[in-house]
């Protein structure tokens, strides 16, 4: 009974937090995916490959190859060079670990170019992007975490990101903020942006918006990164 009461208290706390920030949040990033639910791979040639995941191959935590069993029970290996975007179903444990991020408004994923039904079913959206990994640039599949305000700057999950302190019990921990993301401005190569470098790199991303620089430039807060992206998208030319 005591544990149940604690869980309810934490759950209600996150509801309050979510209601106040829902339009300016990043979607949760996932590191585990279901092999039982259907995955949807949209190819460059507009073909849609459906099937169950067998294995994902990674480069610094980012997907560089997808192994899937299609609807004909054929095992196929597909490289990002051939994939435009894809929807993957998170595993049950991955959803549990991000439980508070699901208490959210539809504005979080509102983008007419994306499949709203799959988002609402809890799927993660990945797209192909050139990403700078150390000194090399590679085409990889990266998870978009700001689909509703990504017109100018896209933010992708960094699976290796550490997080700030979180609260909770067991796997039901939340409140921590990722300390790094991969960020892509316009058609540029996505680069890794870290919390510790945010203040010095703020002007690199938002320097073409004097209003934002004047408002936040003196000491930009990493905890408001999503808010900065949102305002830049909505208010800056």
Q: First CA to last CA: what distance?
A: 54 Å
Order of helices and strands: HEEEEEHHEEEEEEEHHH
| Oligomeric nature of the chains | single chain
Q: In what order do the strands lie side by side in the largest sheet?
A: 4-3-2-1-5-6-7
Mean pLDDT: 83
Q: Regions with pLDDT < 50 over 5+ consecutive residues?
A: 10-22, 102-106, 169-174
The total of beta strands comes to 12
Largest sheet: 7 strands, antiparallel
Rounded Rg: 18 Å
Describe the structure.
The protein has 237 residues and is α+β, with helices and mostly antiparallel strands. It is 24% helix and 32% strand. The chain contains 6 helices and 12 strands. Strands 4-3-2-1-5-6-7 form a 7-stranded antiparallel beta sheet, with no helix packed on it. Strands 8-11-12 form a 3-stranded antiparallel beta sheet, covered by helices on one side. The N and C termini lie far apart (54 Å).
Q: What are its keywords?
A:
24% helix, 237 residues, seven-stranded antiparallel β-sheet, alpha+beta, elongated
Task: Give a quick summary of the entry.
This protein is of the alpha+beta class and 237 residues long.
Question: Which helices and strands occur, and which strands form pairs?
Answer:
Layout: H1 2-21, E1 39-43, E2 48-59, E3 62-70, E4 75-78, E5 83-88, H2 92-97, H3 116-120, E6 124-133, E7 136-143, E8 153-157, E9 167-169, E10 172-174, E11 180-185, E12 191-194, H4 198-206, H5 210-216, H6 225-235
Antiparallel strand pairs: 1-2, 1-5, 2-3, 3-4, 5-6, 6-7, 8-11, 9-10, 11-12
């Amino acid at each position: 009974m005591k544990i149940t009461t604690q869980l309810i208290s934490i759950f209600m706390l996150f509801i309050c937090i979510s209601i106040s920030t829902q339009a300016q949040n990043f979607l949760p990033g996932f590191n585990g995916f279901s092999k039982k639910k259907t995955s949807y791979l949209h190819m460059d040639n507009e073909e849609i490959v459906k099937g169950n995941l067998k294995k994902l191959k990674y480069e610094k935590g980012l997907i560089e190859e997808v192994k899937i069993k299609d609807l004909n029970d054929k095992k196929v290996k597909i490289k990002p060079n051939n994939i435009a975007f894809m929807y993957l179903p998170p595993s049950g444990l991955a959803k549990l670990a991000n439980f508070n991020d699901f208490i959210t408004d539809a504005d979080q994923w509102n983008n007419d170019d994306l499949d709203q039904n799959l988002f609402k079913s809890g799927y993660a959206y990945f797209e192909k992007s050139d990403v700078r990994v150390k000194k090399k640039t590679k085409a990889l599949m990266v998870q978009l975490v700001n689909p509703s305000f990504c017109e100018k700057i896209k933010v992708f999950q960094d699976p290796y990101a550490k997080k700030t302190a979180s609260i909770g019990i067991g796997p039901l921990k939340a409140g921590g903020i990722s300390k790094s993301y991969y960020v892509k401005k316009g058609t540029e190569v996505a680069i890794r942006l870290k919390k510790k470098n945010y203040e010095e790199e703020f002007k690199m991303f938002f320097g073409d918006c004097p209003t934002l620089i004047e408002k936040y430039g003196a000491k930009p807060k990493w905890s408001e990164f999503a808010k900065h992206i949102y305002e830049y998208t909505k208010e800056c030319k």
